[in-house]
Amino acid sequence: MRKKNQRNATFIQTENAMVKVAVINTNEELMIAQDVMRLAISETVTLGIPA
């Protein structure tokens, strides 16, 4: 399984596994930044502060 992960395989479960194990690439920093911006804009609108 480790070799599959090193090859950036989409699925890394063993051949006889009962379930599929998927590797999903994410960019956590980008997602956090987008959430912060969305919340900041939402709060600005809620408080009536010009953006």
Automatic annotation (TrEMBL):
Lineage of producing organism: Bacteria, Pseudomonadati, Pseudomonadota, Gammaproteobacteria, Enterobacterales
Protein name, per record: Propionate kinase, propanediol utilization
Keywords, comma-separated and alphabetical: ATP-binding, Kinase, Nucleotide-binding, Transferase
EC number: 2.7.2.1
A GO molecular function held by the record: acetate kinase activity
InterPro entries: Aliphatic_acid_kin_short-chain, ATPase_NBD
Pfam families: Acetate_kinase
Native organism: Citrobacter freundii
Broad EC category: transferase
Coiled coil: none
Keyword ATP-binding carried by entry: yes
